[in-house]
Specification:
homodimer; 402 residues; alpha/beta; Rossmann fold; Alpha-Beta Plaits; 6-stranded parallel beta sheet; 16 strands; 36% helix
Chain lengths: 402, 402
């Protein structure tokens, strides 16, 4: 019997309780014993909940109850969640989390703390929602040196971009639709400005390179600047615009990580990832390219990943899970300025001027384009080289081509 | 230090040695100790191999060496491989295998034998080559009741179908090209007739339903009957023809499993899986749809999965890996005759006759079709219902629509 306390009865927390209850028989069979929710911590009251007898408002009840084996943290944010996670680990309880902000900012210290207390800190649900990605990365791909990770890591922005591409909505219209459908928060900043994707690529990068990567080390650009004109030009040459979180292994243990909109060729399976779905492509030096695809958010998908972590702990509470990483360092993350790629440029100039500036280009067309607008794909070059060539040009959009 | 013996120095076996050598540092770090190849069993001589000092011709040397912790079986087939696997497990050595034929036919007894001897029998590489799928299914999706598995499980047939679709080659031309490129064997029966995909869906089904599913229980149809005409008709309505292995959970613990060509909508991510790539879509009752994608065969991708299993054992040799399943039974697998779906039909009749027979249909067109040929998609119905409606009609192709 494993006893669980859930911190926070919001979307994910209530999903965890639901999955543990709904699939209890199969979960007990696969865990080697029953998994029972003993406490749910929430400031609110839920008198009609089937779990109404579990609610507590004081964390110390959970902290001091030796029967609680696993604490599920679905509070979010990095304040209360940090305090409770720290106290739970110190009390010798394993912690399972869906909280990417906390892991991206405090993962190293919390993993160390877990190790020091002989327990586990697991957070499969923090990246890709229900998609199995962290455990496959650390276990199933353990024979590989991971060379690259490229992910569509945020369902909200992918939904917005899909609606712009498929329904011709503007960014603002698509954002409103996403909000109306519950896919975007009232304050959509964390999603549309790329912060959420940034936290997730930090976690993936840390697992791949073995050192903590902090969000402030990862240059992050969101999708506010993507226009319908860009979408149309991309479409004209067989590309889709996607917000990608990327991590590339560099020599001497360095890593290049960033978040930015990219043009992705329709030949690439990432281009077909639509709506709120996420996908993470991993390149290993033995396996080549593998991709993991599924729902990156939502109550039950995220709960699926949280409960998988709980089951893992229930099966074998004291096992070292090999998901540790080392401390971060200031010079770990290097700039993407050295990364050569083709570029998509939309600017106010003639195609002749574009050719004069950038050399061999692929001109793009769209119906209804203003006369002074040129859009094109460049040959492969670095960002500084591109900026050098475009000196003095009034650019509207500049996106990297994957 | 973990010592490994590799049985068979063919494509996969030599890839395992190469990956263990090439990535030895990272593997040692992630395993908590060095992993060393002590023996390689092969009837042939490899005097120029960097592993030339490891070769032996007598399995009993491996069997009787207490230093050997893990035996990697990459012999293939179900005769010698069965004997050596049995002897290795009885000798208290864990066995890692890429051999789908052996697992699909003898998985239950070998898993039991491993358990009885306190060791592991792991076979991640037997399905999907390098794609992490078995461990994610048993661990990462452990919170779910798995409702469906749908896989493009054979790279050879997917290559042939892709070349038919994209280059307009006939089946025979595409098969020859696949053979010339080393993607198909000289005797392509196991691939093109679906037997390889059948073995893989048996393994996936056993993990999902917890009981052994034998290949002879799984109706299997290959791709020999897929014509360019079918490909063209499918294309005309936004579908691709793919060979799918499918497993559906049925009431009372039954399972419906089969292998057959299907029309897959271009909206479905499986339709975009091309060339020798494989993909496995899993539907869980919490996570919804997730998909795993990558190279389903090849030296290093397959070795990546084999070595991941070896690392898993090296980290914790005695751990129960939760990959057991129960014995099979004659009435476990039920017929797909109860499964309702739309159907693609190409037959020698007029479209009016087709309507008369099948009711509401979606007529399909292709250039150069003979006058007496009709192709269409039906409304959803079962196979017996379809056959009933088509009684007396001379059909050329009948494929299920996913």
């Amino acid at each position: 019997m494993t006893k669980v306390a859930i911190l926070g009865f919001g979307t994910v927390g209530s999903g965890v309780a639901e999955v543990l209850s709904k699939n209890s028989q199969g979960i007990a069979r696969r865990s080697g014993g029953e998994i029972q929710v003993k406490y749910i911590l929430d400031v609110r009251d839920f008198p009609d909940s089937p779990f109404k007898d579990c609610f507590v408002k004081d964390f110390s009840i959970i902290e001091n109850d030796p029967e609680v084996d696993v604490v599920v943290e679905t509070i979010g944010g990095a304040k209360v969640a940090l305090e409770f996670t720290t106290r739970a680990l110190k009390a010798g309880k394993s912690v399972v989390s869906s909280n990417k902000e906390l892991v991206a900012n405090h993962g190293y210290e919390l993993l160390q703390l877990a190790k020091a207390n002989g327990v586990s800190y697991l957070f499969e649900a923090s990246v890709g929602g229900g998609i199995p990605i962290l455990r496959p990365l650390t276990n199933c791909l353990a024979a590989n040196e991971v060379e690259q990770i490229t992910g569509i890591l945020n369902g909200t922005t992918n939904y917005i971009l899909t609606r712009m591409i498929k329904a011709g909505l503007t960014f603002e219209q698509a954002l409103k639709e996403a909000q109306d459908n519950g896919y975007a928060e009232k304050d959509p900043t964390a999603d549309v400005d790329g912060h959420d994707a940034c936290r997730k690529i930090c976690i993936l990068s840390a697992l791949a390179c073995g050192q903590h990567v902090y969000p402030q080390q990862v240059p992050t650009q969101g999708i506010r600047e993507v226009t319908l004109a860009d979408v149309a030009y991309a479409d004209s040459c067989g590309y889709k615009i996607k917000l990608l979180g990327r991590c590339l292994r560099e020599p001497e243990g360095k890593v290049c990580a960033f978040v930015a909109p990219h043009l992705v060729s329709c030949e690439n399976p990432l281009a077909g990832v639509e709506d709120v779905f996420n996908a993470i492509a991993v390149t290993g030096n033995a396996v080549g390219d593998v991709m993991f695809y599924g729902r990156g958010a939502g109550k039950l998908p995220t709960a699926s990943a949280v409960v998988a972590d709980v089951i893992d702990i229930a099966r074998d509470p004291k096992r070292d899970r090999g998901n540790q990483w080392g401390p971060g360092s200031e010079d770990l993350v290097i700039s993407s300025d050295g990364l050569t790629s083709r570029w998509y440029v939309r600017a106010n100039l003639s195609m002749d001027q574009a050719r004069l500036a950038c050399g061999e280009i692929l001109p793009l067309a769209r119906s209804g384009a203003p006369a002074q607008e040129a859009a094109f794909l460049t040959q492969p070059m670095t960002y500084p080289q591109l900026m050098d060539r475009l000196a003095g040009v009034e650019t509207c959009s500049v996106f990297r081509v994957l």
